Amino acid sequence: MMLTNVLQAASGTLDGIWIGQLLGLQAIAAVSAFFPILFLALSLVIGLSSGAAVLIGQAWGAGDRLRVRGIAATAIMMMLAVSLPIALFGNFALPSLLQALGTPAAVLPAAVDYARLMTAGCPVIFLLWLVTSMSRGVGDAVSPLFVLLIATALSLAATPALIEGWAGLPRLGVASAAISTIVAYALSLLWLAWHWRRRRHPLAPTVWLSPAFDVSFARAILRIGLPTAGQMMSIAVAELVLLGLVNRHGVGATASYGAINQIMSWVQFPVMSLGITATVLASHSIGAGRLGAVGPILATGLRLNLVTTGTFVGAAYLLAPAAIGLFITDAATALAAVDLLHIVLWSVVLAGWSAVLSGIMRADGTVLAPTGLFMVAITLVEVPVAFLLDAQIGLPGIWIGYAAGFAANLLLQAGFYGLVWSKRPARQLT
């Protein structure tokens, strides 16, 4: 699972390194300006993926393969209903949205071009995200590993080729990263469909899973997925707000924001992996009626987070100057970015504990309360602290706000788990 998450981020990280080294500071800033917008759109698919993975996990635990395929087919149709309008109509709003976020004028044209290409590729990006999540729901974490390995390798080769114009290819600048990502994801999806059919995988497409859209499955997916999507959207909106603050400090600050996000995505691999694994294992146990296994799954997840996430955080502190230097070639900007990264790194351990707790609770469909508490931490702690401290001490205050939000969320999730969720039996979903 962790290797899969590593590969999921590797493509973006490698693209960022190529852009930073070959095109410079303004190009990194242009790509960074679009990240929260993409994450806002992706939030809906993360919610659908979460709901589908929980339902598939319980159906798989109960041995009901037909229900597994019905849930998967319904989830794919729902994803297409979300992503196609974004791809078709989202481009029109991008220039105004990027301007409203205060994107520095020097990077705005490149940011718009990159954003339009990535938005057009949303159906491919979202479909890959969904099918890898559903694969984990049936206990198959290997297929996502291979498909993302293929996507990363293709992107690694294509991005510099399009930037430098190798073999007579056009030089496409910042757009190279977007085009290589979309092409790599599309080819990887085709490979996955072939691979699953050859293996007779439970999710293998046969006229794309064969079962028709099922309203009852859609309702169940939305019951779990919408709160999760709301949680992700609250993160995305907070990122948009905080990026607006960052952009006020100039191109260097925007580039630093992008570089720090890339490194934080690597440090958070254990967080994502442990949260997803906790949900999958707990949903299997609940679906099979083995409710006594949920407690040990939680305890193991909390201990593993301390060891694995703590190790990643320690390594990031040691390697921060070298890691930042991969993205930012300007010495003064890189030094400032390292200081900002040091402010927030330690709090990723707290985020990991929160992810395990909420992952366990999500396994029986309990999503509204954890999501609401998370949104409280974001809106009433993270963003206000960032605004207040940015006004008082400048750019470092924004990253102190992130750490404060992680700490508040852990306290709220632990309180709800201990005082409410653990006091009642876990429930099976239909």
Strand content: under 5%
SSE run: HHHHHHHHHHHHHHHH
How many domains make up the 3D coordinates? 1
Largest sheet, described in full?
none
Contiguous low-pLDDT stretches (5 residues minimum) are none
Rounded to the nearest angstrom, the distance between the terminal CA atoms is: 27 Å
Helix share bin: over 70%
Q: Tell me, rounded to a whole number, the average pLDDT.
A: 86
**Shape from CA axes?**
globular
Summed up, the helix count is 16
The gist of it:
With 430 residues, this protein is mostly helical.
Describe the structure.
- There is one protein chain.
- The chain is an all-alpha fold and 430 residues long.
- The protein has one domain (2-423).
- The protein has 16 helices and no strands.
- The chain has helices at residues 2-22, 25-61, 65-89, 94-100, 108-120, 122-137, 142-164, 175-199, 215-247, 251-267, 269-287, 294-327, 331-344, 348-362, 368-393, 396-419.
- α3 (65-89) crosses α9 (215-247), α13 packs parallel to α16 and α15 packs antiparallel against α16 (396-419).
- The longest helix has 37 residues, at 25-61.
- It is globular.
- 54% of the residues are buried.
